[in-house]
Amino acid sequence: MNGAIPYEKIDKDIIPLVRVLNATGCLTTTGSCIGHKMNPVAEVLFKVTDSEKWKRVMLRLLHLSRSIDYANIDVFQWHRLGIDGEYIVDWSLQITIHPQHLDFKYDGERLSELKQSIIDEISGISGIEAG
What we know:
By secondary structure, this protein is α+β, with helices and mostly antiparallel strands.
């Protein structure tokens, strides 16, 4: 994404997470969605701009993921070729709350709690503010 991030076009419930991810200085977000009843996965798409700093953020996410049992925090990297043959590397942070019952209902409250835990964990890295 070039220039200022258009926060007015982002799902308002995911803006704090997008802000803290961008504040890391190691990545630039390119898209996001808080998740919805039909697809309860919250997702932030991004490009890594500083690999060494990103490793620190990734370790924090892995640490948090190991400490919870009610959700998955997954990070994916994929490689692709653009239309003009350009080699592109993209990343995705996905947050999925485990269904509590067979009759799954979107659990926005637990998702908000986990999103705040991720913000707190990443903000714990020296020099990063939650914004």
